């Protein structure tokens, strides 16, 4: 029975499936996912779940999938896409025919080439978060490799649980490559206030039993090591099927069409044309993935839809909420504006604002929406 097949059960995949189902109540809809859990939201894993804050993770209950006749096939690995026969092939040899296919396979954690890295935990899935939370119960000290958003959030949660935590990164301050030195200095202060130590301008050379060896030769005690060194979009299926890719992502237009007939891509794997920006923009966060999934679902259902929102996301470090809105690409210069209890960083290229980062500056955050749309 052909219909809509979705690969991946994250925000993009579930959004595509539920959007298509709402327009076509009788056409088969299937989601194939390697994850054994019911579809869940990932941002709260490092922001709330690890910190023991109340949060609702499930995107839908099992009853919702039954009631809406969305077939959720969990714990299955897709081995390939046959674009000529319009079929998806699983590792077990099962074939699922499709009229329309949405590839929303997300990203995989990148493990740095470090001796002993296999002992480090990652934080990409619910299973990862449960394992990390359990390990933290029996740990006195931890090292987090990487000072990106996930690394900073996880480190603050670990420190809040009473684990002496250090972040190790090649940057001089956390988040420097993405947000600049001044914003990074403020994040370093926030982390320090939560009890997180930061070791910058260095790397992890090796992970040994109960300790981490830094690139400087210094050794740090660590009952627990977390690898938060970034992610890589999982585009292997698309590449093997001959679907066009660029810069490590699947090329799609503003409707989420790939180069293959009736195949769409959304979320981390997609390099999509944003009509507001007027150029391809990588999607890296939950809200973007959900919106792209909706566009893919509408397009597959025969309705007109385009990706036109300005990307935005929030990061929670202890009780501080950093908000970013913008195109996520490089910038020529930044303007750091100090406020009484926060800050705003305006990122500019030419005469245009291309992004804004705020802490307790909601007026600037809201104002940036119109500025980015009119740039």
TrEMBL record:
The name this protein goes by in its record: Pyridine nucleotide-disulphide oxidoreductase
PANTHER family the UniProt entry points to: APOPTOSIS-INDUCING FACTOR 1, RIESKE DOMAIN-CONTAINING PROTEIN-RELATED
Keyword presence, Transit peptide: no
GO MF annotations, alphabetized: oxidoreductase activity, acting on NAD(P)H
Gene source species: Mycolicibacterium rutilum
GO annotation, cellular component aspect: cytoplasm
Names of the cofactor(s): FAD
Keywords attached to this entry: FAD, Flavoprotein, Oxidoreductase
Domain FAD/NAD(P)-binding: 4-279
Keyword Nucleotide-binding appears in the UniProt entry: no
């Amino acid at each position: 029975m052909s219909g809509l097949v979705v690969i991946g059960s994250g925000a993009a995949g579930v959004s595509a499936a539920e959007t298509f189902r709402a327009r076509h109540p009788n056409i088969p809809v299937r989601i194939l996912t390697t994850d054994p859990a019911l579809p869940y939201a990932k941002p709260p894993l490092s922001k709330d779940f690890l910190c023991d804050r109340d949060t609702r993770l499930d995107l839908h209950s099992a009853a919702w999938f039954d009631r809406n006749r969305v077939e959720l096939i969990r714990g299955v690995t897709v081995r390939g896409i046959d674009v000529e026969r319009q079929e998806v092939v699983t590792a077990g040899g099962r074939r699922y025919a499709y009229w329309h296919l949405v590839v929303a396979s997300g990203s995989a954690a990148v493990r740095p080439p470090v001796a002993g890295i296999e002992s480090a935990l990652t934080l990409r899935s619910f299973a990862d978060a449960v394992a990390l939370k359990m390990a933290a119960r029996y740990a006195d000290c931890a090292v987090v490799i990487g000072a990106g958003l996930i690394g900073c959030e996880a480190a603050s949660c670990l420190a809040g649980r009473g684990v002496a935590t250090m972040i190790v990164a090649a940057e001089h301050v956390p988040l420097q490559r993405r947000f600049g030195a001044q914003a990074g200095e403020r994040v370093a202060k926030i982390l320090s206030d939560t009890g997180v130590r930061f070791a910058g301008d260095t790397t992890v050379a090796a992970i040994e039993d109960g300790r981490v060896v830094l690139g400087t030769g210094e050794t740090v005690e660590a009952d627990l090591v977390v690898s938060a060194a970034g992610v890589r979009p999982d585009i292997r299926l698309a590449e093997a099927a001959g679907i066009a890719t660029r810069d490590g992502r699947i090329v799609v237009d503003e409707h989420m069409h790939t180069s293959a007939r009736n195949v769409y891509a959304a979320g981390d794997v997609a390099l999509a044309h944003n009509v507001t920006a007027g150029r391809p923009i990588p999607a890296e966060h939950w809200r973007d993935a959900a919106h792209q999934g909706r566009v893919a679902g509408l397009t597959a259902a025969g309705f007109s839809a385009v990706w036109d929102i300005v990307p935005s996301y929030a990061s929670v470090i202890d009780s501080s909420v950093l908000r970013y809105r913008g195109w996520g690409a490089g910038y020529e210069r930044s303007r750091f504006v100090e406020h009484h209890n926060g800050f705003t960083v305006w990122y500019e290229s030419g005469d245009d604002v291309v992004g804004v980062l705020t802490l307790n500056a909601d007026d600037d955050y809201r104002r940036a929406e119109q500025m980015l749309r009119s740039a």
